[in-house]
């Protein structure tokens, strides 16, 4: 690990250091969280979570099941392809194949500041094939022939997440075929020109949950070297520089200094967690949070950026996907299927308003992991509607319970745990015309409440 980053020469004093450390924690939380994931996925080749080195795509031709426990609240709708980008030497060109109409896909480019700096896919660019260039800070080249657009990252290292819709288990070979059509190559290779000199090798600090917890500011100081200072960061960077973060000159610190930093970080973490608990707008027992996503939309609101990252790092921008979530029924009582059964009913013509598809996924309320169940069903989604039973008035009822409701209702059964429940509704490419969930809190559509039936 690098040495603790606190400049001794011009210490601002107890209160100043505390406040600077608190602000640095809030500003730096998404950056450090990103580094920890990047280390596991793209750097630590001996680790169990390693996917692929920088600038190489890793395709996951599967969706999460109850056996997947590494990531909480896993998405079981869209198999992922993962690409970590190193843009220091030159830009990278991402290419996608033509994807058949009716199958949603998205390519989310998220930089080291956790800004969603660009999208490719059904909503953003359509279903057609094409190539897009992703450039790091300072790149000033012309848009090459054959490239449809340029996505600019505020950091030299960035993440690309490809999501490809899966219709049903038998559809997986079709998803895998599309994944094989995703590609990434350096700009020089795309142009068939000589490659520029390789960037300097990096000595990556090893990142584990325990190390990050105890050396947070060291990781932040290290990660900032890959981030170009942005205009809205001037004040926070000056504040952090007073305690040696981001200066390029880390120095030793005393026990008193360390205690000041730890106290400031503790307070920053407390405020972020409080922000997460209060996030979102209440809707019939559900909560829905607006995710600004872009650098421009956050506009220097470091607390909002930290809250979004803590609640779900790499969350899609609201226009791409919106996520109502709940642990409560329509009355505000905690969902618990150890003794209760529930229903979720969408009125006729009032299914979630989306351009792509929607889903409702069940998780264990304690662990936020998927539930082992006798029919291997973890969600109800749009592709399943044709097999589901409608009510006489055209409405659709989902039966939420731990026990099989019997053959007549099984198609509408969402298996639940024998205990507390956590549920997430995912609306991919939500509609903007009425009735819509958007703008969050002002739209004409809201998720219906969950009703206790026994």
- Average residue-wise pLDDT: 93
Unreliable spans are 1-12
Large-scale geometry: globular
Biggest sheet, open or closed, and with what strands and sense?
5 strands, antiparallel
The assembly state of the depicted protein chains is: single chain
For the biggest β-sheet, the strand order reads: 1-2-8-4-5
- In N-to-C order, the SSE pattern is HEEEEEEEEHEHHHHHEEHHEEEEEEEEE
User: What's the tally of helices?
Assistant: 9
Class by helix and strand content?
Answer: alpha+beta
Based on CA atoms alone, the radius of gyration comes out at: 23 Å
Q: How widely separated are the two ends?
A: 55 Å
How helix-rich are the residues, as a percent range?
Answer: 10-25%
Beta-strand segment tally: 20
Strand content: 15-25%
Describe this structure in words.
23% of the residues lie in helices and 21% in strands. The chain has 454 residues and is of the alpha+beta class. A hairpin with a 2-residue loop joins strand 10 (281-283) and strand 11 (286-288). The radius of gyration is 23 Å and the shape is globular.
